[in-house]
Each structure stands twice: as C-alpha cells, then as structure tokens.
Amino acid sequence: MSKSFKKLLFWVVLIALVLGVVLFINSTMEKKKSKKSENNPRQKTPEPPSDNPKPKSVPPIDTENWRLTDEEIEHAYQEIRKEIENLPEIQLVSPTITRYIQEGGEISEDLKKAKIIFFPINNSETHETADSGSHWTLLVCDNRGGIGAFAHYNSAGSNISTNTQKLAEKLCEKLEVDKDYLPPKIYNDHECPQQTNGADCGVYVIAYTRFLVNEWKKKKGPGKASFKEQDLIFSVAEERQKLKETGFPKKGTPGKDYKIGDDVEYLEKEEELISQWWPMRDNPHHPLRKIVRNVWNGDIEEKGEPYDHVDNFKELSKKVRLLSGISKIEKEKLTQIYRIKKILKVCSLPLEEYKKTKSFNGKDNFREDKITDEESQFVRENINKKIIKEINDLYRTHFPGK
Question: How far is the C-alpha of 168 from the C-alpha of 109, rounded, in Å?
C-alpha cells in the first residue's frame, strides 16, 4: 500500500468521525430544547385573538332542524331586548306587529323615535298568520335623519319578497318619510351567512338580529353591513338549542305536537267583498249572508240603519283574520275564532261555490233556497255580544296601540 493512499484513507476516516460527532451533538441539543418547551407553556405560540369572542357560557350544540313560529322568534327577541333596555333608539318588532304594520296598522311612538328597527318578515301570501309562509327574512330600517333606509338579510339568496316591499312602503307612510326618498330603496347586496337546509331561516333571522344589535351597541351606530358565519354571537345550532332549553317547540304549536282546531283560509281580498254583499237588501240566493247580517243588526248593533253597519262588521272580520294567526292563544278561544272565520269564509263564496260547500255539520251542502235551523243556531252561537267582546279584548292584547 502506497504512502499516498494511506494518507487519503486517514483523512476520510477523520472527516467521518468529525461529522458523526457533530450530528450527535446537534441531535442531543434538539431533544433538550423540545423537552424544555414542553415543560414551559409560555414558550408555546399564542393563538391570535378573535375579533368577536364567544361568550364564556355556550350551550351544547344540537343539530336537529325545525321551523320556527312567530312565538319562538318573539321569545328570542325578548331575550335580546333585555340587553338594550337602556337603548330606546334600537327597536325589535315582533312578527305579529310586523304583520300588523304591513297590513296598514299604526306604529307606536317608540318606533317613530327609533334610529334602527328590526322586522322579522314571513313570506306568507295570505297575511292571515305571522308564520304561515315558508320562509323568514330580516328587514332593518335605519331611520337616522328620517330617510327610511332599508337593508334586507335573506339566508336563502337575495330575493326581496312582496311582503318586504309592502312593509317598507307602509312604514315610510307612518314615519312620514320625505317624498324625495320614496319609493323606499331596499339594499340587499351585502354578504350574510346562508342556510344549508330548508328549515333554518327563522333561526338565522335571530342570529342576524343578535349580531347587528351587538354591532350597533359597540359602535353606537351601524357596524358591519356584511358578515360571515364565524362573526355570529351564537351559531345557528346554538341559537336553536337556546330555544329548546326554554321549552320550545311548545305543545300546541301548529305543525308540532298537534293541530289546534279546524282552520280555513280566509284572505284579505275575500274580506273586501263584505262591502259588496252587505248593502244588498235581499240575498235570496245566499241565505247565510242574510242571517249573518240580521244577527249583527239585531243582536250586536244598537243604533243606526241596518245597512250602515258594514264598516263595523268588516272591523270584526279583520280582527278575526289577524287573531287566527296567533298560535299562543289558548286552544278553546282559538277554536272559537276559527268558527267565526268559517262563517266569514262561506259568506264570501259566490253562489255556485256556496252550493258545493259542506255546511257547518260537515255532512250536507248549503242550500240556496233557505238556511237550516242548525246553520242559524251555529251563527247565533258564534256571533253574539259576549264573543265579540272576547274578540275585542284579545285583539287589544295581541295588537296593542290600535
């Protein structure tokens, strides 16, 4: 073996030994560093703070889906109102009063003075109940400066329903918004969380409201117009669970545990027909209209010409139609309201349809030549002074201020 080869081998072995020692020392130091970090939590990388931290007490998440009624939304609104008791400029309107204003009803002084107003809107085409439609959305009115600016939040797209437009127009009338700002403009180009099923629209309305109210409180004015799911104070599942913990859905809620009474569809346009048939002095082909008018003129009204009472009877009709949508009315009284509504419905029918309709006994059809004793008794049992007083009392309770 030559001297040059031995020399080369020596250096190769030496370099290998040095590299091995360096790798061993480096590995040992890394292990010690890792162990030290584990024993000292302050060395961990801190998580960035949340822009909208969750409250400390968050209910357990429930993934069950169920549609909300007006009562459930109002319950959540009552909870949110407790957080803004000292902020009268923020007003949350119940679904029932929302529908009442949409129908042309008067608004309270609190609403006239408010700066921002929240309205939960249902897409019901009948306007008979606050929750008889298939979808809830949120309309927010910013009335600073009296210009009636509107923002619409829809968890299933960007469509603005007819009811939403109608409410905005009626509200502007009551707020006496300057004509330069009419018809009202409704903005819906902002981003908001979207539902992933066909049932959560009402829960999203609650979640939207809670977030926007919180924004107003923090900034003493309008905050974010657009927001995402992670911005919500409570998630949709958490909002639903909060309702369940307070007893919702309740027994007796239509569509839940049992159906209350036997309701019929009676529309506002059918109510308007009263002005046409009431003044007719003879209804030979519609005896039910005749007996209803005679009972009203003889047992309810105490003065005035019989044919002058049409407006009072229409007022009763309106109260019955609106009250029939209040699911929290006790079962017996709600069933009574449904009976009066049946009478009103049959009175609105044209002759041919009237003759094809089952009478109140559910067996025989109505006759065009006469009314039976049973039908006459049904009218007198359900349209009398005692029941009219109960209807008026219920209306004042559920539609205050009118």
Answer: 17
CA distance 73 to 118: 12
Q: How far apart are CA 39 and CA 36, in angstroms?
A: 5
Residue 79 CA, distance from chain mean position: 15
- Kindly state the tokens that stand for 152: 């619409």
| Residue 335 CA, distance from chain mean position | 24
- How many of the other CB atoms lie within 10 Å of CB of 335? 14
SS3 92: strand
Q: H or E element: which one contains 78?
A: helix 70-81
SS3 387: helix
Which tokens in the block code for residue 372?
Answer: 């039976």
Let me know how long the chain is: 402
Predicted confidence (pLDDT) per residue in 143-153, tens digit: 887 777 899 99
Give me the CATH topology for the region 70-245: Adenoviral Proteinase; Chain (3.40.395)
Give yes or no for a contact between 279 and 311, defined as CB atoms under 8 angstroms apart: no
pTM: 0.53
CA dihedral of 326, 327, 331, 337, whole degrees rounded to 10:
30
Dihedral sign, Cα of residue 97, residue 102, residue 103, residue 109:
positive
Could you give the residue range(s) of every CATH 3.40.395.10 domain in the chain?
70-245
**What distance in Å separates the CA atoms of residue 333 and residue 395, rounded to the nearest whole number?**
12
CB atoms within 10 A of CB 156: 17
Name which of 313, 251, 242 is nearest 277 in CA terms.
313
Determine contact, residues 188/154, Cβ cutoff 8 Å: yes
3-class DSSP assignment, residue 171:
helix
**Cα–Cα separations (whole angstroms), residue 28 to 41, 223, 256:** 21, 54, 67
| Pair 270, 317: CB distance under 8 Å | no
- Average pLDDT in the 74-103 region? 92
Taking the C-alpha atoms of residue 234 and residue 59, their distance in angstroms, rounded to an integer, is 9
DSSP code of 233?
Answer: S
Helices H, strands E: what count in the chain?
A: 15, 5
Measured CA to CA in angstroms, residue 293 lies from 86, 198, 277, 300, 355 at distances of: 50, 45, 10, 10, 19
Q: What would the pLDDT profile of 218-266 be if each residue is shown by its tens digit? A: 877 676 788 999 999 988 888 888 888 777 765 444 433 323 346 777 8
List the structure tokens of 395. Answer: 């209306």
